[in-house]
Amino acid sequence: MDFNEVIKSRRSIRKFKTQPIPDKYIQEIIEAGRLAPSVSNIQSTRYVIIKSSEVKEKLNEYTVPFVKNAPVVIVCCAYKKAWLEQEEKFLELKNMGAFKDFYQETEQQINNFAKDGKLEIMANPEINKYYTWQHAAIAIDHMTLKAVDLGLGSCWVGFVDREKVRKLINLNEDYEVIALLPIGYPSYNPLPRPRLSINDILLKEL
C-alpha cells in the first residue's frame, strides 16, 4: 500500500473478525517496532504476544472490554535496565561512523557529552523514564501503520492497570507495561475522524 494511503487509512479499530492472523504478519509488525529509533539506540521497548483466550479473559479485568476480542494482543513494555547499556550503545554508534557527517564542533560536543564514560544528561531517572516511554510510542506508531499495510486493524490502548498486567504476564520489575495493542482484521470500516487543519496546528514559521 502507498505510504500516504497507510497513514490516511489508519483507524482505531475496536471490533475484529475472528479470523486468525498469520504468524508471519505478527512477526512483520514486531519487526516494524524493532526498527523504530531510540535515544543512543538503546532499544528499550519489549513485547509480549498474547493469543491465548484464557490469558485474554484475565487481561479483560485490567483494561477495556474490547481488547479480549482481538485475535492477538501485543503488550508493549519498557525494559528499564536498557539504560545501563547506554554508554556502550552510544559508543557503538560513534565507532561505526554514525556521526561522521556532523560538523567538527558537533563532534567535540559529542565527545564532551560522553566524557568520563557517562552520558550525564541521562543520569536522572525521570529523564530516562520520559525517553523510555517516548521510545515505546514511536515503536507502537510504526506497528499500527504496519498493521494497516497488512490489511489489519489495531488500537492503541493506554487505559490499563499496568502493574497488574505486568504480573499477569509474569514479567519482573525490570519491565514496565506501557500500552496494549490489540490486532485483528477489522469487522467494520470507521469513518475518518475530524482533524484540525494545518493552519490550526502550525504555530509559526521562523
TrEMBL record:
Record Pfam families: Nitroreductase
InterPro entries, per database record: Nitroreductase (IPR029479), Nitroreductase-like (IPR000415)
Obligatory cofactor(s): FMN
Matches recorded under SUPFAM superfamilies: FMN-dependent nitroreductase-like
TM helices/strands, residue ranges: none
Record's keyword annotation contains Signal: no
Record key words, sorted: Flavoprotein, FMN, Oxidoreductase
Keyword Coiled coil: no
Gene Ontology terms, MF aspect: oxidoreductase activity
Matches recorded under Gene3D superfamilies: NADH Oxidase (3.40.109.10)
Residue ranges of every copy of the Nitroreductase domain listed in the record: 7-185
Family per record: Belongs to the nitroreductase family.
Name the record gives this protein: Nitroreductase
UniProt source species: Clostridium pasteurianum DSM 525 = ATCC 6013
Highest classification ranks of the organism: Bacteria, Bacillati, Bacillota, Clostridia, Eubacteriales
